[in-house]
Amino acid sequence: MRNEAKVVAVTGASSGIGEATARRLAADGHRLFLGARRTGRLDALSREIGGAGGTAAFQRLDVTDAADVRAFVAAAREHYGRMDVMVNNAGVMPLSPLDALKVDEWDRMIDVNVRGVLHGIAAALPVMRAQGGGHFVNVASVGAYEVSPTAAVYCATKFAVRALSEGLRQESDGSVRVTLVSPGVTESELAEGISDPAAREAMKAYRAVALPASAVAEAIAYAVAQPAGVDVNEIVVRPAASAQ
């Protein structure tokens, strides 16, 4: 990979970690291509980045749709001429105990958290191979290392992201770097998608100590900034006061 400013595509960029990552990487001089379903937010963020002297463009993106992700990556490449970094960040977290049988929510987590990452890899890997290099940053969770009540399916999806990241790293020849970033509890909108009352209340207590999204963005920026011969494989970021 080149040492100058990179072209970085970010999924789930309309809020939380994705939004903070876009701001942080733009401040480092990278050129951003932002994707999410809420285009109004993407437009506002792109304008903000541009007003601060950065470079950003956007396109509506549904990571559960493989064709949509391919079109997103193609648009990034067409817009900037290449694509150096793919940040697979989009995720959902509708927690509930297994006996609540919220199958639709399980399916949604699998579609966004697992298939979304696979779609990102499938779309961006051929581009990176063709241009001689690239970097995947896959956002998981501390739930990729441990399981807690109400989070079994969510953790299963993040274990999967961890496995996919390690498999991709092992299959790469060194030209494509792979970084797994696993945040602990972080300020975001993820908890708003919890429909189970008990799980929602438990999450309120759990989130009493939370990282700002900007802290996770700093970790991503660190990995992206490394020289081409350095591959930062895993970063776990937790609030200092949190046991999980």
Describe this structure in words.
The structure is a single chain. Helix content is 46%, strand content 16%. It is globular, with a radius of gyration of 17 Å. It is an alpha/beta fold. The chain has helices at 16-27, 39-51, 66-80, 103-131, 152-171, 197-206, 213-225, and strands at 7-11, 31-36, 55-60, 85-88, 134-139, 176-183, 234-237. Helix 1 (16-27) links the parallel strand 1 (7-11) and strand 2 (31-36). It has seven helices and seven strands, in the order βαβαβαβαβαβααβ. It has a seven-stranded parallel beta sheet with strand order 3-2-1-4-5-6-7, with helices on both faces.
Q: How many strand units?
A: 7
- Describe the largest sheet: 7 strands, parallel
The percent range for strand residues is 15-25%
Shape: globular
**Terminus-to-terminus distance:** 35 Å
Percent in helix: 40-55%
Cα-based radius of gyration, to the nearest Å = 17 Å
Whole-number mean pLDDT? 92
Order of helices and strands: EHEHEHEHEHEHHE
Structural class: alpha/beta
Q: Give the assembly state of these chains.
A: single chain
**Number of helices in the DSSP assignment:** 7
Strand order, sheet with most strands: 3-2-1-4-5-6-7
Unreliable segments of 5+ consecutive residues:
none
Topology:
Blueprint: E1 7-11, H1 16-27, E2 31-36, H2 39-51, E3 55-60, H3 66-80, E4 85-88, H4 103-131, E5 134-139, H5 152-171, E6 176-183, H6 197-206, H7 213-225, E7 234-237
Parallel strand pairs: 1-2, 1-4, 2-3, 4-5, 5-6, 6-7
